[in-house]
Amino acid sequence: MPAYAVAILSETHLNNEIRAYLERIDSTLQPYAGQFIIHGGPYISLEGEPTADLIVIQFPDMEHASRWYDSPAYQAIKPLRTASSDGIVFLVRGVPTDHRAMDILA
Questions:
Q1: Which of 32, 65, 74, 99 has the lowest CB atom count within 10 Å?
Q2: What CATH number does residue 44 fall under?
Q3: Model-wide pTM > 0.85
Q4: Strand 85-93 and strand 3-12: pairing?
């Protein structure tokens, strides 16, 4: 089942550190089959106005996602992001293709 690394960044400074982070992150994803599926806007507002950038990276499963985040390669560049942005980052499991909304009540 897929898993996702999600970042909701309320502020990002486009400085040399974040540029270095962006230049290096793709190579940290490759060994764990990670791929960007959402990387910011543009947004079409339907209810309210977005106040943060949404980034979602898909992995084959939670093990791959966790191993990527904990990897020496990612940990080496993580300070470049944390020094240049504010927000939250988390890992979350996806749901099976046959998932229905009521399944969460079971």
A1: 99
A2: 3.30.70.100
A3: yes
A4: antiparallel
Pairwise CA distance, residues 80 & 87, whole Å: 14
Q: Which domain holds residue 72?
A: 3-105
**Residue of 70, 9, 86 lying closest to 34 (CA atoms):** 70
Nearby residues of 30 by Cβ (< 8 Å), 6 or more positions away: none
- One pLDDT digit (tens) per residue for the chain, 106 residues: 999 999 999 999 999 999 999 999 999 999 999 999 999 988 999 999 999 999 999 999 999 999 999 999 999 999 999 999 999 999 999 999 999 999 999 8
